[in-house]
Amino acid sequence: MPQISIDRSGCRSCSLCHDVCPTEVFDLDSGGVAIAARPANCIGCTSCETACPSRCLEVTDVQRQRPFYRIEENVAFIAKFLRRKPVGVELSQDDWHLAIRDVATRLTGLSDSITETMGRGQKAVGRKAGRLAAEHMPEMYEGRGTKQVLDRLQLRFRGAFDFKYEVAADESSVQIHFEHCALVHVCAAGGTTPGQALICSLFHEYWAGLVGAFANRNYSVGEASSTCPCTLTLTVRD
């Protein structure tokens, strides 16, 4: 069973652990200091530990996932965000397959949940996710025009999504040819068909939101092929 320890002298009374906990483990005393009032409810997600700005909360006796993060320019950021060092040795084939299966399970479950909840509104969710992601890539906004933005995205995503593009003269449409896409491996691990899986549809909308945010245009998916490698056409929405 997970064990929760709180250094009360370090608590800032921010209530983040209380707010983020999905099983309502925490109460706040009269001074706003967190108390693990219902420890038996803890499922070991460690959301509280991650959210705590004071580092005064710790969850032990839980199995933690290995951090499979290998994008070199992001290693320092990931280490700071997770407060754990990324894997320091080369990943074995078993490690690779384990990570892909884990990602496939999570992304497939996420896409199924979004579709079940939102129905046709899933497209808006995908575009919104792209725009939110853009907020965490401020360097992309330095590109002048859609072509420079796409050049920067090619460099940023080269390890997972290798693509070429064509931009209309008036920038009213963008055609993206994904020559390699990491979702191929995710679909294979999840038993779905690349290009036809729900996660692919969300991914296309994600790129519409991402490119649109950087180019300051309201793009939507005009057409997307159902085969892999896929071609994605983004068009300006009226």
Q: Judging by the overall fold, what is the CATH architecture of the largest domain?
A: 2-Layer Sandwich
Low-confidence sequence ranges: 67-71
Count of extended strands: 8
Number of domains: 2
Query: If you compute it from the alpha carbons, what radius of gyration comes out, rounded to the nearest whole angstrom?
Result: 21 Å
Average pLDDT number? 84
- Gap between N and C termini, in Å? 54 Å
Q: What global shape is seen?
A: elongated
> How does the major sheet shape up?
4 strands, antiparallel
Query: How many DSSP H or I helices?
Result: 8
The helical percent reads 25-40%
The SSE string, one letter per element, is EHEEHEHHHHEEHHEE
- CATH class call of the largest domain: Alpha Beta
List the strand order in the largest sheet.
Answer: 5-6-8-7
Summarize the structure.
The chain has 238 residues and is of the alpha+beta class. It has helices spanning 16-20, 47-51, 75-82, 93-118, 122-134, 146-156, 183-190, 198-215; strands at residues 3-6, 26-28, 34-36, 57-60, 161-167, 173-181, 219-224, 231-236.
Which structural traits does this protein have?
single chain, 8 helices, Muramoyl-pentapeptide Carboxypeptidase, domain 2, alpha+beta, elongated, Alpha-Beta Plaits, 4-stranded antiparallel β-sheet, 238 residues, two-stranded antiparallel ribbon
